[in-house]
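Long-time lurker. I teach an intro course on protein structure, and each term I like to show students one example going from raw sequence to a predicted 3D structure in token notation. This year I'd like something fresh instead of my usual example. Would anyone be willing to generate the tokens for the chain below so I can use it in lecture? Attribution to the forum is fine with me.
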Amino acid sequence: MLPVSRTRHLRLGIAVVALALALPAFAGTLPEAVNGQALPSLAPMIARVSPAVVNISSTSHRRVAVNPFFSDPIMRQFFGMPAVPSRELVQQSLGSGVIVNAQKGYILTNNHVIAGSDDIKVTLTDGKSYTAKVIGADAVSDLAVIQIHAPGLVALPFADSSKLRVGDFVVALGDPFGLGQSATSGIISGLQRQDLRRSGVQNYIQTDASINPGNSGGALVNLDGQLVGINSMIYSPSGASAGLGFAIPSNLAADVMKQLIAHGKVERGSLGVDVQNLTARVAAALGIKASGGALITNVLPDSPAAKAGLKPGDLVTSVNGNPVTDAQDLRNAQGLAPLGSTLRLGVDRGGRQLVIDATLTAISSQASGASLDARLAGASFSDTPSGNGIEGVTITDVAPGSRAARNGLDSGDVLVGVNNVATPNLVQLRRVFSLHPRVLLLTLVRQGQMVQLQIGG
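-- Reply from a regular --
Happy to contribute to a lecture. Here you go:
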């Protein structure tokens, strides 16, 4: 066995030497060509794309209580403190962005990169920094548009993300960990990813190109240097890349961007229904034979769903011919459809298969307290702008002497929860009050402090 082993080692050594002699000697670099064939490189494309990808640093200032103990007015009175002792908390975040309009300086990024910021700085690849202003932001899609004024900007063209296929090569560009612009390559691992443990519209591109903290808002491009997605999130047990990166498709990003530039916000329609997943236990209890779908549990009065004839207990199994496997599928269908469009719903009602058309209508961003609950009469409610960092409904006005005033509500309060249910917007707030709760436990943010009010029936 020993002579055979030596022979194999000798042959291997000769082969290595021969290969080394056949290639030109480059110290620490790959050859430009092998047997007359140029080696493929992403360098020319990356050099062309890189100037369109920027670093974004944002700073926010807010006052927080020194000790939550003193949020209780009784404790403050006992210790002779008329106001809540507080200090200024400064928070900084880093992310990336993509220049999408060179002439007007529009930059597309993630909403979570700039949400709640008082100061936003954009740094280009040449090292120059500019102050940016927010044009519009949308928490539902996690997209935002900011603007800078700078000469000689380079913008990225959009690709048609509907033509992406699993296996296509892509490159992710951004500023991970604030180290400077970096590029990583990989493939499209999956399309139309949903159910990623977050709310809002979900229609993600999955890629194994490394995406790390700081890459959020950066570009996912094809080999032609066209934008196919906005890097948004990762799945990782450690917080660093584990080969599970997710990007918002360019087609969705382009649609949202147009609305943000035109209106500063995204106008979406809604069917006006609450839905849940169809579990085996629920299906058995209701006698439903289907294995999937979105089960309607509540229909809001005067909503498009109510006008179309949808009822609690209906099971939505398809939208416009596309199968609905769970509640998130129906939420996506509403969130991705243009305002005013008609959805053709396949519905299972007690075993009968129905087709129902419902037109998405705009959701009012304001409501009177009396329309929600008589105990809130005299207060006016409005959706909170997405840029202030608080997900809740703002109380814009409280009439003096009104029932709302007597129950302790103040103008400027942000209502973030009712009876331990989060109320990030008026849609969810209406849903909570549609259940007609007997006792109200309101969770409010008041002048930077969290307070709770209990209101009896």
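Some talking points for your students: The domain at 161-263 is CATH 2.40.10.10 (Thrombin, subunit H). The chain has four domains: 48-147, 161-263, 269-362, 366-455.
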